[in-house]
Amino acid sequence: MVSALGVAALLVVGAFAVYLGLRGYLQSDKFRTMLGAEVSGVMRAEGEFEEFQWRGTSAYTASFNAKGYEDAAFSRVRANRVEARVNFRAVWRKVWEIAAIDIGRVDVRVSPDDRLARPQSGPGDGADGGAGGGGFLAGFVPDKVEVKRLGIDEFNIDVALGEARVAGRRSAVEIKPTATPDVYRVSVNGGGITASGYPGLELAAAELRVGTGQAIIDSSEFTLFEEGQLEAHGDIRYGGTGEGAGVAISARLRGVNAEEVLPDDWVKKLRGEIEAQVEVGGGFGAGRTPTFSGVVTLEDGVLEAVPVLDRIDEMLGSSRFRRLSFSEFRARFERGSELLEITDFYAVNAGAAALKGRGEFTHDGAVQGGAYMLGVTPQVTQHLPLVKRLVFDQVFRNDVDTAFAAVFGAADVPKPPEGYRWAVVRILPGAPDPYSADLREQFINAGGLAIWAELSGAAEVAVEALGVLADAAREQGIDVLTVLADGSEENGGMFTLDNIRGAAGELGVTSSMEEVLEDVGGAVGELPGTLLETGAGLLQGFLP
Fold first, then answer.
1. What is the pLDDT of residue 462?
2. Which of 388, 386, 276 lies closest to 332, judged by CA?
3. Which end of the chain is more exposed for a tag (fewer CB within 10 A), N or C?
4. Which stretches does DSSP call E strand in 322-446?
5. Closest by alpha carbon to 279, among 218, 232, 331?
6. What is the pLDDT of residues 398-439, one digit of tens each?
């Protein structure tokens, strides 16, 4: 009995001695260095803790700083006010089990071009897990670290991917290990995300899995503007700065009022609720930029308070155009490193007009080219005077198949419905009115200078143009109608644009005529032009 008690006492004393020795080791620089190396190995980084202070089984340090290697998810990390609770019972299975790490604040920078090249040996290689280099504690000192939970009160992140700059602020984060080695589940709640020149996003919640060179976004929900909602999922690959670094994300946007996105001068003209489906894909770093593609729609779209619509109604003697309600308003787009392409824009009011087209724009909105088909129903022009109706019939002379082939060729794009007569219009980059310059020439070449001037709000210009010719002819003792008639057959009609310019050349007043014709501007292009620009711009504010 005495022998048994002695053995028990020795075991208790021995266990206590081991505990005291391990406590001493935990408070040593060797443990701090070892833990820093282990954490750095998990993070694929080179990092270091400041000195630990112990209170019971909890350790506190002022900060942890690390710089990521080329396969890390970040380039730099700084953690402030770090407290860890250690489960000493796990020591008997040779594991430093950290039940929880709570951090007051973490600041992260992500930049693929600002990371360390990985050294020949890993950050934990050669770290001595023993206490004092040996002794009786060597058999008890754990050789690995397990973290059961990591919580962050305030998480801030700055991301630089190519030209894109994104910042996240004041999110709460919880990280837990998964059953897959080196993969961690990350829950994020609250906070906001901003990018220079773009609308801010308020984060509701996000669930991610991070590790093995990628971050998988299982779900994320944001709010923007007053009632807009954005959901996104996908993955970001950050395994190095080479071809492996890239992104594949799907996002859905809904509930954004058009007036919250449109420029101020269009806020009261176009109304409706924006919905969008966006795909982001491609590589980043080393001069590469992700691409964006998708479709944006305007639900319950209404266009009104546009002067040209009022003038169209006045000319037609109708009320069809004063307030256009769209049964469909949709734009499909692709945005690469240089251009934003509207591959298919479609807006239709079943009782009056339809517009379907494509366009190319630089990222700052400059027009690069494109074409569209503008359709009107036969009922729109049936009450026009014969002279005006003949002009409209010449401009809107195409059936749907002819117009569609001229604008889209063999592109895989849905064809608009029957029931409209179509004008085919080229978008002319460099023109003062790129959306309507071609349409203007078609009207004037069909003998509709006065009609176009009326649509553009400058009806007197048509009279003024003929006045310039008449004054010049009178001074030279020539009949102006004779000059116009002489070129009418060659130029397609007496009052076509080519013939008017030809007559001005004959009479030596070309510069004066061009000054007058400049006043017959592109105001009528407000309708097709701004609708196409709107299709390009509805998401422009969301794309970095």
1. 65
2. 276
3. N
4. 323-325, 328-335, 339-349, 353-362, 367-376, 421-426
5. 232
6. 999 999 999 999 999 999 999 999 999 999 998 777 888 888
